[in-house]
Each structure stands twice: as C-alpha cells, then as structure tokens.
Design a protein that fits this description.
The structure holds 2 protein chains of 2 kinds.
Chain A: E1 6-9, E2 12-13, H1 21-24, H2 44-47, E3 70-72, H3 85-92, E4 97-100, H4 105-114, E5 117-120, H5 123-135, E6 142-145, E7 150-152, E8 158-160, H6 165-173, H7 177-182, H8 185-198, H9 201-204
Parallel strand pairs in A: 2-3, 3-4, 4-5
Antiparallel strand pairs in A: 1-6, 6-7, 7-8
Chain B: H1 5-12, E1 14-19, E2 22-26, E3 29-33, H2 37-46, E4 57-60, H3 77-93, E5 96-97, H4 108-114, E6 123-126, E7 140-143, H5 146-155, E8 157-161, E9 165-171, H6 180-191, E10 200-204, H7 206-209, H8 213-221, E11 230-233, H9 237-243, H10 252-262, E12 275-280, E13 287-289, E14 297-299, H11 313-326, E15 341-344, H12 352-362, E16 372-375, H13 380-388, H14 391-397, E17 401-402, E18 423-426, E19 441-444, H15 447-456
Classes of the chains: A alpha/beta, B alpha/beta.
C-alpha cells in the first residue's frame, strides 16, 4: 500500500450524491485489467464524449482541477459494487483523498487498503470548501494532513477530522494488513481449536 | 442483556479485540468468483502466501461468462482467461470449484444457499457486494474488496469494525401482486439508498416470517442498495426445512447439534437496535424504479416525479440528471412507458420461485414483438428444476430466450449488454447509469412485473394484467 501523509491541491468540486462505483469505473474495464492502467478509464462515461474527446463540462477535466489529489463529493460516495477497481481508477487519475459526508461502506474499506484517504466531513463544510475553491480556482488550495488529522480550507480555516487510529497508522506507514493480522496467529489457532470443539457442525460438513 | 441476532453471531466470531470497536473476526466460509477470485489467489501466491483453509472456500465462475445457449468458457474470451486463472489457482490450493456447465455452478449467491454452503449463524465473506443475499438464512454475510479478499483467504479472518444495527419490521398481510422485491424496493424508496450505510439490517415482522426461503434471499439481496453491509432474517422452520439434506449442510448428529445452536440465534425479546422501523404491508404496491438509483422508485400506478418538487437542491439535480438519462418526463405516467428489453435473472431474482412467478404471468400469451426478453436461471440446479417443470417451454413459447446460468445482463461484464438508449425492465438490483450497458435505461421490478412488461411491451401493473 502507498503511504499517505498529506496532500495539497485545488479540490475538485464534484458535489453529487450517490456517485456509484459503476460510474467511477465500468465493469468491462475490470475484465482483463489489473490494478494498474485504470486511471484513463476513471469516470469514462462522463469524462469523454461519444467521439472519444474529453467532455469539457465534466469538472475534473477543467484546467485548475486536472490531476488534483483531492476530490469533493456529496453523500454516499462510492456506493454500490465492491469493485476495488474504483479506488485503483481514482488513484490512477491522481486522486489521493476524497472528502464526502458519507461513503459506500465497501469502497471506504477499499480506500484504506490502497492509500487513498476517505475523509468524512459535514456537507456544509464541504460545500464551503467547494465555494471557496470555485471563487478562485486558480489559486485556491486545500490541504489534507493525516498526521495532524486536519483539513486546511482555501481560506486557511483548519477543520479537524477523525479517522480510526489503526487505519491512520497503517496509512501513514503503508503497513500490510495481512502481516498485522498474522501477529495474532496464536489467538487465531486457539479460537479455531475452541470453536471446532463447540461448533463441530460448522467444520465437519465441509471437511 | 438482551442481544440481537447480529450481536450473537458477531460476538461468537471475535478472535481478538483490536480497539476502537474493531475486532479480528473469524470467517466460516469464503466465496470466490471469476472476476476477482483467480487474481486474489495469484497475488497471494506471488507474495509467498497460501490459502489458509481451502476447505472453507468455494469458487464458481459467474460474472464474466456468456449466458448464450450452448456456451462454453471460450464463448467470452476475456472471461475465459479469468476462468482459467480461477481453475488453476483452485486446483493448486485445494479449493472446491463448481466449474462452468457442471453441477453446482451458478451465480455465487444462488449456489451458496442452494448447496448449504451458507448456514445460520455463520460468517461469510465474498468479493461481491451482493454477498448480503446469504443473510436470508440467518448468516452474517458481507461483501469485501479485492485486497480484503486476499486477507480473508490468507488468514480466514478479517478485521472489522462493529456496525450499527437497523431492524425493519414488515407487518400485516401481503397485498396481491407484492413480492419480496417490492418490499425491499419500497423500503429503499422510503429510507434512501444511504439509510443503512455500513449497518447490519435485520428484516422481521409477520410478513417476513411468512416469506419463503427464496423470498428472504431476495429481501436481503438489496440490503447493499440501502448501503448496508449485512442483511439478515432470523432462521426458523422455513430455513431449517430448506437447508435439510443440502450437499454441504450438516447431517445426522451434527444436524441436530446445529439445530440446537440455530434455535438460539433469533434476536432476544427486548433487544435494541440502532434504528428500528416498521412498514405496513398495506402501504406497499408493486414497485418499479424510474431513475438511476434504487431509491428512485415508485408504485407502478404512480407518475414520474417532478424535480421541482424535490426536497432539496441536491435531490433536484439528481432527479433531473436521472430523468434526462432515463428519457422520462416529469409527471409522466409510469404505466404505458414503452419497453424494449426484459431481463429475468441475477442473484436477486433467478431462483425457481422467481421463474415460476414469471411463467405464471404468461398464461399462454406471447411477448410484444419489439421486446427482447431473456430468462437466465441462477444456477445449473435452478435450470434443471425449471426444465423438469417445463418452464423453459412456457418461456420459449411466449418468445422469451431461455439461457444458461450466470450474472448476464445484471453486470454486463460478459459481452452481454442492453443496447444504448434501450429501456429494460430488469429483475436485477442496480439501475445505475451504464450498469446494463452504456446508455442502457434500467427499471428494476419483480419477476412478475418484468414478465408482464415483456407481454405488454410497456410498463404495466401486474395486478391488472
């Protein structure tokens, strides 16, 4: 996993609710493509016109927002399918942090597996960041600092956010979840021995 | 202290407390499919890791497979590579695989209950968001991404944060024409597509107790469309009768021991939920979606809503975009809207009772000439049972295509899609932009409603058809 300390950029104001993972990356792109190479297909149905050229009305295509590491969204960002390709596609187009009031649950977990930071803030705060950005898109800069757990808005306001400490640690240091879990190997084996004795039916029928 | 069913299952599976509400949980079963299974196992192998408990892992190709009659893996070459990788890794790791066109194969969430792989009180994870379907038997089943799947396979565990609980009680007699699909669509419409985000749903009440096992699976299937992680129905005699004798269900003394455990699972009287709601069945009519989120749903007898009447700016913009994509006008009557395609299938509605309900509507009639109608059974078993009843003949005589098991038009990851601009009444679970194909317009509904739409060539109220 890529580690994450802080990012700064002109936040992309994609202020829509229920942006689903089918929109972020169509499933056809995930048949035969691995973790890399999805960036150009992120949001492809909205990002490109039928002739293949870029859609100038799609906000992430517009000059100050191109390749910005921060995306702003409304409620329930990343809802729908469990496809981790949605995270790979966003990262492939340069996004390292999404700020939204709420996220699709599986997408939220997938973000932490890859080093894309999902930050939950109230919708009013996100709207304010969007307005400050749109008022002066060439100069507006937003910073998301995971070390200090704070978002700095373009006007300089510091807004704290919360994140689970185990996720924060893993993200700051790019830790491998499997290695962390294997530290509990003894506890896992002990649990299994106890469960096999208590709940043999759950084991025997597939043995 | 009284416990919910979810609490009981969660507590039993905690290996270690990781702090801040996180626990390391044991997984009783893992399901894998072609789209992510082979790759997840290959990545493990590359990292020098093995599948921890291969006997608790079950694989089936379903997503990237053709549903064309007579299909093989090669019918969709891109998918064949995924199937070959799954075959190779399952063989290397000792994982059971129900291969294409072989007994047991089918949509992962159709075969898991059908084969008794998922059982009451078990934890189950799969790299697919509709894993919540399996909660219909009273299991804690949830979808995960590719990296978490790798973790699950390597350790048979997952770190998880304890979710909140959300109970919906459906009370009263089921009105005519209303199915489990209508119940859950109505709930999503009432509470929103994000109402259950990350939560564990429990569906209860007299109307849920009265549902068959297959209907309970349909109900739980759309939990994720409310954002929920888990959807569950308490196990009872309906569940036990359904599971008895299934291939991977316990037998003999183990079955008796399991039954004793399972009878303890239902939520205790007085157990409290983070959120608790009641829906009266008399308030539910057959549902159909009009937009591009499952929450954009209405009774089939109603009209397309007017964005000017949306409760806030965000919703107004979303409704406008949805109507634009769907090619619908504000205030337009839903009934009578011309339909080009009908899809009966998916992990939501491809089980035997779904196909029976659709066939029942036909009554010797034929589909409208301009409609393309597909019936895709959920598994080899469903297909065989349906054919034994002659359902395939009834569908064919009505002009419907009778196809091979798989996700087909629900996911459009298999070379099959609804054409651009075409309007499809679908028994699947997502009406997202582009879900059934670029520019495809999806209306979600029950199998009976879908069959009726195929015959009428338009959206129609199944009760008056």
């Amino acid at each position: 996993m890529e580690n994450f300390q802080s990012v700064t950029g002109c936040a992309i104001p994609l202020m829509e609710a229920n942006v689903d993972t089918d929109v972020i990356i169509p499933i056809q792109r995930l048949v035969g493509t691995g973790r890399k190479g999805l960036g150009e297909h992120a949001f492809e149905r909205r990002r490109y016109l039928p002739d293949g050229s870029e859609n100038p009305d799609f906000i992430p295509n517009q000059a100050p927002y191109r390749e910005s590491p921060i995306l702003l969204a409304a409620e329930n960002f990343g809802c729908g399918s469990s496809r981790e390709g949605a995270v790979w596609a966003l990262m492939g187009m340069g996004v390292r942090c999404v700020i939204a009031p709420s996220f699709g649950d599986i997408f939220f977990s997938n973000c932490f597996q890859n080093g894309l930071l999902p930050v939950k803030l109230p919708i009013e705060v996100i709207r304010r960041i969007a307005e400050e950005t749109q008022a002066s898109p060439g100069n507006a800069r937003t910073t998301v600092d995971l070390e200090r757990q704070v978002v700095i808005t373009p006007s300089g306001e510091a807004i704290p956010f919360t994140v689970d400490q185990r996720k924060r640690e893993a993200m700051l240091h790019g830790l491998d979840d499997i290695a962390l879990t294997l530290k509990h190997a003894e506890a896992i084996e002990a649990w299994k021995a106890k469960d096999r004795a208590a709940r043999g039916w759950a084991w025997e029928s597939v043995a | 202290m009284p416990k919910t069913m979810f609490d009981k299952i969660w507590d039993r599976h905690v290996i270690a407390d990781l702090g801040e509400g996180w626990s390391l949980l044991y997984l009783d079963r893992i399901l894998v499919h072609d789209l992510s299974g082979g790759r997840a196992m290959a990545e493990l192998a590359e990292a020098g890791r093995r599948v921890a408990e291969p006997r608790k892992v079950f694989a089936t190709p379903d997503h990237a497979v053709s549903s064309a009659p007579g299909r093989t893996a090669a019918s969709y070459p891109k998918g064949e590579r995924l199937i070959n990788s799954l075959r190779e890794r399952c063989a290397a790791e000792g994982v059971r695989m129900f291969d294409l066109n072989k007994p047991g194969n089918g949509i992962v969430h159709v075969i898991a209950p059908e084969l008794g792989i998922v059982l009451p009180g078990l934890t189950l994870a799969c790299g697919d968001s509709h894993t919540c379907t399996n909660g219909g038997v009273g299991a804690m089943a949830f979808g995960i991404g590719a990296s978490e799947l790798g973790h699950a396979l390597a350790t048979q565990t997952l770190p998880q944060r304890r979710p909140g609980t959300f109970r919906i009680r459906f009370e009263g007699e089921r009105p005519a024409g209303v199915t489990a699909k209508d119940m859950i669509l109505a709930a999503i419409g009432r509470f929103s597509a994000a109402a259950g985000t990350g939560m564990a749903m429990e569906y209860a009440g007299s109307a849920v107790r009265a549902l068959s096992m297959e209907e309970r699976l349909t109900l739980c299937n759309l939990s994720i469309e409310m954002g929920a992680k888990v959807g569950m129905v308490a196990p009872d005699d309906v569940t036990f009768e359904y599971l008895a004798g299934r291939e991977y269900a316990p037998k003999g003394a183990a079955w008796e021991a399991a039954l004793r455990d399972w009878r303890e699972l239902p939520s205790d009287p007085g157990a409290t939920f983070t959120r608790d709601e009641v829906i009266h069945m008399r308030d539910i009519a057959p549902q159909i979606t009009w937009g591009t989120s499952p929450e954009q749903v209405a009774a089939v007898t109603s009209h397309v809503p007017d964005p000017r009447e949306a409760p806030n700016d965000g919703k107004r913009a979303a409704w406008e975009a949805a109507l634009d994509y769907m090619g619908l006008q504000p205030g337009q009557k839903l009934e009578g809207t011309k339909v080009d395609w009908v899809f009966i299938g998916s992990c939501t509605n491809s089980r035997l009772s779904d196909l029976r309900a659709a066939a029942e509507v036909i009554k010797g009639r034929k589909k409208a000439e301009h409609v393309t109608a597909w019936v895709v059974p959920g598994s080899e078993t469903v297909k065989a049972e349906a054919e034994a009843e002659g359902l395939h003949i009834r569908f064919r005589e009505a002009g419907f295509e009778w196809r091979e098991p798989g996700c087909a038009l629900c996911v459009a990851a298999n070379g099959e899609s609804v054409p651009e601009g075409a309007r499809c009444v679908s028994t699947s679970n997502r009406n997202f932009v582009g879900r059934q194909g670029t520019g495809a317009r999806t209306h979600l509904a029950s199998p009976a409603m879908a069959a009726a739409a195929a015959l009428a060539g338009a959206i129609v109220d199944v009760r008056s058809f």
